[in-house]
Predict the structure.
Amino acid sequence: MSDAVKYLLDETHLPKRWYNLMADLPSPPPPVLHPGTLKPIGPDDLAPLFPMSLIMQEVSTEREIDIPEPVRNIYRQWRPSPLFRARRLEHALQTPARIYYKYEGVSPAGSHKPNTAVAQAFYNKEAGVTRITTETGAGQWGSSLALAGSIFGIEIQIFMVRISYDQKPYRRAFMETFGARCIASPSMETSFGRQVLAASPQSPGSLGIAISEAVEVAAGRDDTKYALGSVLNHVLLHQTVIGQEAIAQMDLANDYPDIVIGCTGGGSNFAGIAFPFIGAQLRGGKKVRVIAVEPAACPSLTRGQYAYDFGDTGHMTPLARMYTLGSTFIPPGFHAGGLRYHGMAPLVSHIKELGLIEARAYHQIACFDAGVFFARQEGIVPAPEANHAVKAAIDEAVLCKEHGAAKTILFNLSGHGHFDMQAYQDYFDGKLSDQSYDERELAMALAGLPSVPA
Amino acid sequence: MSDAVKYLLDETHLPKRWYNLMADLPSPPPPVLHPGTLKPIGPDDLAPLFPMSLIMQEVSTEREIDIPEPVRNIYRQWRPSPLFRARRLEHALQTPARIYYKYEGVSPAGSHKPNTAVAQAFYNKEAGVTRITTETGAGQWGSSLALAGSIFGIEIQIFMVRISYDQKPYRRAFMETFGARCIASPSMETSFGRQVLAASPQSPGSLGIAISEAVEVAAGRDDTKYALGSVLNHVLLHQTVIGQEAIAQMDLANDYPDIVIGCTGGGSNFAGIAFPFIGAQLRGGKKVRVIAVEPAACPSLTRGQYAYDFGDTGHMTPLARMYTLGSTFIPPGFHAGGLRYHGMAPLVSHIKELGLIEARAYHQIACFDAGVFFARQEGIVPAPEANHAVKAAIDEAVLCKEHGAAKTILFNLSGHGHFDMQAYQDYFDGKLSDQSYDERELAMALAGLPSVPA
């Protein structure tokens, strides 16, 4: 029997700087536009929502940005996170491929999300902010911001998509244990929420609606700011500690990936593992195939349009050019709640346009097949989101077997599935299905994209 | 703000040997007796249930027992586990005490239990065993043996206390994800189970009943053995990696505990952190106060008798001298399911008799108060069992404040509470109560202890 091999860095190897892919790109992404004027927005347009330090990171083109020491001190609780060689999985697949995975489930909130939650809470605290609003779907992001708020003494108010609020009471209890307040969205606490409820009293909610509610609250109060768990440049930036550590750990293993894989909903987990490798390649390093994996039921990268769109349903956000299914698109119910977003991070969308990454989509049953197979070999039960990356890694390893190619595959295991056991139970009970979105609804959502002259 | 400080050992410091407290005791514990003859049992009496390698560990008086390399290879996935200095907790308590905690929640099953599950599965595999039966209450042990079974390719059959089976479907799904089979106990699969159900068709089950069922199945089949997650000497032995690592980590911190704290149900978590420190003291090292913390609703160490008793309800096990509430004692419902056992490990009971440890009992609401306070400072949500240790550590730290004493406190945080969020929800909803056992029922259970001439 082969065993898992762990590559652990000591704390002196905790990254001192975040890596900004913007600095190494051959061309910048298109500007973000004001929805009224259709002119590029400036930092001041974002000031009602974010502290200026985060806004400056959002627009920065510096290659490296110092991680404040208080943030590194908190990262140290679980970072550097381990990187494993999946020897038992390789053995079970009888593949010549070498499979590695970076494991972000070791954070106290159980996923990669605290990497940015802690940073965002720090900058807000520094700016004197006493309350942060946000939205959460699956709950990974809400849990992480709740954790960060408890550390920095900031009040956290979370608009939780109604259907998750009802279906995932344990995720809610977890956030409340950290002292956060969860509100089912759509709610009566915002005018947008009241508007949605007036039109549709039984609305199950959506991430787009919850974002609108959280933004509305933050925009209306001086002591309150808003935080987003993915999509934005500064969020992706904070996640690059993952890939930077992975590069050092692959070096420890005396290896380097041919293929890097991450699941992608808003894009932050994918960016975290992938951007440092793509940057190294752009600066003349070894070429890597980078694969973004998304759910077939919400396939922005593989079936969306690269177009200007709103980030939310209430159209309170600026317009960003990104792969989008349209801000009115509501994906069918599937269990990887963290991947149920209509758009894709503008920076991830841009490098897809530049041909720097591939994308593929999987249905959920095949992902659970892969996740359970992985759990039985490697002993870790992945979150449903992470199962998409597991599935792609296994598919690539099987291809290696068929072609007799001893490739090196690295994927990010973004979180554990401890709060997702209902999904596994449904899988075992044969209750899962591979629902597709309605093609006509997608066409309508795309037809409704805002018109922006080229 | 002060931050958590992590003391991490690299893999070269993973213990090579388990530590056997038996070697350093001034007197051996009383012998285990055959329930029919009342004569001391020998290794052969246990052979139907356990592989001989584990039986020899059960009776060993060697100070150190080599950890097989395949077991160490699996330990490496999460060991050495981190030891933290709880600076944020100290700060919040305004205490001069230094508080450290060893964190076992980093294991793939989320608690200390895999330390012995992996070892037991290894020895069973080596002995050609193809199936292991066991019982589980809260599910920490069942999850860990399920994990170990998946690694070694052994079929795992888990008798899960009926009330937990019904109330904790997610814990069950977790075990099934690793490929184990869970059976609600009492079941129709054993003659003892059928007997219980005939007398009490709605029986909620108990650990004592589930043990009897698992033992019955193993005793009846050559290819099947039984595994226990606590109480027995060899189980406690396997947990001593915790305390050995903690000694090395306290050394890294340039500190040494004045007080060592562990929660205790069957005794394995407590032994894991405490025995190496007690052994060092017995060999002439620094004296430490060692505190075992148990639930006030199931207080074997503080309210039980030190007497010979059965380990199970069906009276299929040998008789061991231990602190016991009587094998027919059924504790009231409380959330720390891992601490709901009528007896206490004979070795832990023996050192209590020798005056080497203190014991105290807490009701559950005070423990949840402590656990939530801890989570908001340190970012980790503890299992309800571990909250007992957290509560004692906080109480000791508050005493230090009152007395102006800068003591060093170390406790074991045996697991995370990710599968126990219903308990936290009940706590937040004000639905928890501090139920006590019925004094008359305890008296009856104690009156029913088997009669063993001195």
